[in-house]
Amino acid sequence: MLLNWNAVQNGRVDNNLLLDSLIEKATQGSTKTVAVAAAEDSEVIKAVIEASERNLARFILFGDQEKIRTLLGSKYKDVKIVHADSTTASAELAVKAVFKKEAEVLMKGNLPTNIILKAVLNKDYGLRTGNILSHTAVFEIPDINRLMIVTDAAMNMTPNLDQKVQIVQNAVSIAKSIGIALPKVAPLAAVEVINPAMEATIDAAALTIMNQRGQISGCIIDGPLALDNAVSVLAAEHKGIHSEVAGNADILLVPTIEAGNVLYKSLIYFAKAKVGAVISGAKAPIVLTSRADSSESKLYSLSLALCCAVD
Ligand SMILES: CCCC(=O)SCCNC(=O)CCNC(=O)[C@H](O)C(C)(C)COP(=O)(O)OP(=O)(O)OC[C@H]1O[C@@H](n2cnc3c(N)ncnc32)[C@H](O)[C@@H]1OP(=O)(O)O
């Protein structure tokens, strides 16, 4: 069952089908082409087939032609495949296809994240814009009545304050594109008070003031917050923290890639969350999930990227 997109008000619906609404929204724009790097993977091909059957997008699949053909089966012999001898070559070719505007979305298949990102950052044919590129993951978590966004779990390793500002701005645009009009942002740390020995707390406080003084707009930021008081009103009240964000955060800004990656995978493996994730800030959205993520997550990520791609 698909949720009516118009029923998603401010991203706060008590419904476990929220990521499904992204699929519906993605079908509403013009049909776009997706370049998939290293498509030779069963979960990637399942997502491609599901997306094709729902008329979500067209695909150009880069990688090992024989393996891709076998995974696709005879029913999908019209899908365009471009052979590449290695994962690095398939990343380069897929990025070049987006650079040349033969595709509007890039998708990571069965290859390490750093290989595709290095091609994306290539000075000659890459997809740089001059802004920071960052990873934004949208989670549907059982028993949580809203979508939760985590950034950056996959690209920026130890972002400085300036980079965190752009990571927040990228996540805020994604939040808006999925219907969260004024996202609440919690810069996470291990504590809720400023400790000069913990850089995450200083950056969080700076981001909060920058937001209050209009240097970062389109969202409400309050931090530092620890994870419990960012997402639980009870935990926030227990510690005497009162703010619009405490307990109600939509966007969790993590201090490092390790914190983000562990949170991302904990939500999936321990909390049985569903995820859709993209890299934004580039010339085109990039579908970027873990290679071990399910075809369902890849389909949600694809839908999220299609929602963000320019018509
Ligand atoms: C969550 C599910 C999926 C996963 O589990 S993913 C697994 C974890 N992720 C990863 O392993 C990837 C982590 N990141 C990286 O490996 C690297 O940062 C990355 C993205 C490959 C870049 O590496 P390098 O090419 O060595 O980077 P570098 O620092 O030497 O910079 C080269 C040029 O690129 C630029 N750059 C790097 N990161 C950027 C960014 N985020 N946005 C915009 N520009 C960026 C950098 O400024 C530099 O530019 P220039 O050449 O000086 O003009």
Give the topology.
Blueprint: H1 18-26, E1 32-37, H2 42-53, E2 57-63, H3 65-72, E3 80-83, H4 87-99, E4 105-108, H5 113-120, E5 134-140, E6 148-151, H6 161-177, E7 184-187, H7 199-212, E8 220-221, H8 227-231, H9 233-238, E9 251-253, H10 257-269, E10 274-280, E11 286-287, H11 295-308
Parallel strand pairs: 1-2, 1-4, 2-3, 4-11, 6-9, 7-8, 7-9
Antiparallel strand pairs: 5-6, 5-10, 10-11
Helix pairs in contact: 1-11, 2-11, 4-5
Can you give a write-up of this model?
The chain is of the alpha/beta class. 38% of the residues lie in helices and 16% in strands. The chain has helices at 18-26, 42-53, 65-72, 87-99, 113-120, 161-177, 199-212, 227-231, 233-238, 257-269, 295-308; strands spanning 32-37, 57-63, 80-83, 105-108, 134-140, 148-151, 184-187, 220-221, 251-253, 274-280, 286-287. The longest helix is centred in the middle third of the chain and has 17 residues, at 161-177. The chain is elongated, with a radius of gyration of 19 Å. Residues 113-114, 117-118, 121, 132-133, 153-157, 261, 264, 289-290 line the site of Butyryl Coenzyme A (BCO).
* Structural class category: alpha/beta
* Unreliable residue stretches: 1-17
What ions, cofactors and ligands are bound? Butyryl Coenzyme A
Helix percent band: 25-40%
User: Span between N and C termini?
Assistant: 26 Å
Shape: elongated
* Strand residues, percent: 15-25%
| H and E order | HEHEHEHEHEEHEHEHHEHEEH
Oligomer: single chain
Number of strands: 11
Task: Give a concise summary.
This protein is of the alpha/beta class and 311 residues long. The protein is built from eleven helices and eleven strands. Helix 1 packs across helix 11 and helix 4 (87-99) runs parallel beside helix 5 (113-120).
